[in-house]
Structure to design on (245 residues):
């Protein structure tokens, strides 16, 4: 399978590593806006703009959500063009052969993702193109599932809640630890168990803490300890949400 990858950000780099590690996938070109060389260290043709495109089975776009329409617009109308975004509808691609390959994961610099552990959502304008994306996912060792754009946007929303919003609370907790000369590492076993127990319990059944116990004394004490008004409001909103769910 011949693939042209467009994008050199966090996801683009992860996809590049995953593709070049597979002998049955051939990355024929990598388009990266900041590229200064003509080839990667693995010998893959490298370009900093969409030109002199090589014959390929599909163009896989891994750029910012805002850039997807313009990037797709620069590609041949007869090509099979696929984007990787969770919150962008398939209609952002004008090509008749268009699709979405959405890896449900968070991607960060310095972290190598094992794609064989991932669920990957697929959508195509033409049902006849789905087998090609399914084959690609299978070569990566991942699990594919079909969804439409509305479902994917809702799943992306859910992903932001469990990942990005949760991580912001980690940032706030780390700041509290630092301000009191406590290592954030002390919280890591708690964080791990919070996630691990979801293998056995529903999120609602897993809920613990002063809010679910209606422990008003502890809640008031916590609000007194919080020095930032912004974090106080977050604490109040989450406490109320837990109590009223």
């Amino acid at each position: 399978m011949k693939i042209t990858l467009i994008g050199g950000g966090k996801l683009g780099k992860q996809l590049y590593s995953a593709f070049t590690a597979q002998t049955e996938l051939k990355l024929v070109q990598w388009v990266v806006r900041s590229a200064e060389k003509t080839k990667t260290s693995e010998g893959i043709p490298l370009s900093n703009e969409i030109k002199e495109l090589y014959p390929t089975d599909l163009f896989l776009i891994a750029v910012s959500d805002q850039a997807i329409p313009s990037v797709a617009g620069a590609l041949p109308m007869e090509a099979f063009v696929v984007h990787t975004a969770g919150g962008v509808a398939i209609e952002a691609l004008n090509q008749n052969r268009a699709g979405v390959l959405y890896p449900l994961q968070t991607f960060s610099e310095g972290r190598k993702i094992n794609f064989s552990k991932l669920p990957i959502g697929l959508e195509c304008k033409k049902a006849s193109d789905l087998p090609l994306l399914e084959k690609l996912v299978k070569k990566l060792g991942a699990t594919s599932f079909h969804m439409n754009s509305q479902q994917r946007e809702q799943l992306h929303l859910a992903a932001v809640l469990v990942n990005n919003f949760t991580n912001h609370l980690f940032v706030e907790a780390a700041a509290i630890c630092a301000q009191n000369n406590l290592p954030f590492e002390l919280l890591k076993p708690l964080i791990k168990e919070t996630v691990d127990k979801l293998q056995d319990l529903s999120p609602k059944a897993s809920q613990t803490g002063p809010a679910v116990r209606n422990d008003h004394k502890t809640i008031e004490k916590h609000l007194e300890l919080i020095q930032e008004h912004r974090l106080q409001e977050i604490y109040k909103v989450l406490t109320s949400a837990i109590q009223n769910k």
Observations:
- The first helix runs from residue 10 to 20.
- The domain at 2-147 is CATH 3.40.50.720 (Rossmann fold).
- The chain has nine helices and eight strands.
- The CA atoms of residues 72 and 93 lie 6 Å apart.
